[in-house]
Specification:
By secondary structure, the chain is of the alpha+beta class. 29% of the residues lie in helices and 42% in strands. The protein has 2 helices and 6 strands; from the N terminus they run E-H-E-E-E-E-H-E. The strands form 2 sheets. It has a 4-stranded antiparallel β-sheet with strand order 2-5-1-6, with helices on one face. Strands 3-4 form a two-stranded antiparallel ribbon.
């Protein structure tokens, strides 16, 4: 196993492509996206049942080095500040196969 940082980002679905660009620009090699996540945060509830999807959230998770995680968080901070959301970073073990 290898020690890595797991970065989890939840933000407005309309901004997910921008978040994925950040990951690409910072050299992150892979990620998982879950669209239309529901929850409640500082900007209120996001029920996920809007007709257009404009007010829904999406979740992105990646595993990367500590240095990449720091760069990703710094780059997504302006997105989160403007559109809301959360970024979490935790240390974890990558099971290589």
């Amino acid at each position: 196993m290898t020690t890595v940082r797991k970065v989890e980002i939840v933000t407005a679905s309309l901004e997910i492509e921008h978040v994925l660009e950040v990951l690409d620009n910072e050299g992150v090699s892979g990620y998982t996206v879950i669209r239309d996540v529901v929850g409640r945060g500082s900007r209120g509830a996001r029920p996920g049942d809007e007709l257009t999807g404009a007010l829904t959230n999406s979740y992105v998770m990646t595993a990367c080095s500590a240095e990449e995680a720091e760069r990703v968080v710094a780059a997504v901070r302006p997105i989160l500040k403007r559109f809301g959301g959360v970024a979490l970073v935790s240390e974890c073990q990558w099971v290589r196969h």
